[in-house]
Input
Amino acid sequence: MEIQKLILELKFKAVRSSGAGGQNVNKVSSKVILTFDLNNSQVLSESEKLVLESKLRSRLTSENILMLQCDEDRSQLKNKSIVIKRFLSLIEQGLVIPKIRKATKIPKSVIRKRIKDKKNTSEIKKSRRNPDV
Output
């Protein structure tokens, strides 16, 4: 995956932030909305698209478009860099394939020790009983 080519496929839109902030919020479009069309991506292979589609299903629109937004900073440039970092980490995490867990076999020595301990406990409890007369 080529990060620079992937970044070129992103579309950005600057809008006014909501919430408190006074006149600055009313004048400046500092909130950045990133959109990425998963289906029309030239950088990702078909298998990568399928993996991302399944892992990011809850974050994608019905047309398989990923939308991220950032309005943390007053600077549009900083918000843009923050949202790009979020996007790249999301894609990297989505493409990670977890290792398949192999069940470990219990060693025979451990099984023997457990049975020996059970027998020993049984003998101790038998010795505590009242003898039958």
Notes: Residues 75 and 102 are 49 Å apart (CA to CA). The first strand starts at residue 11 and ends at 15.
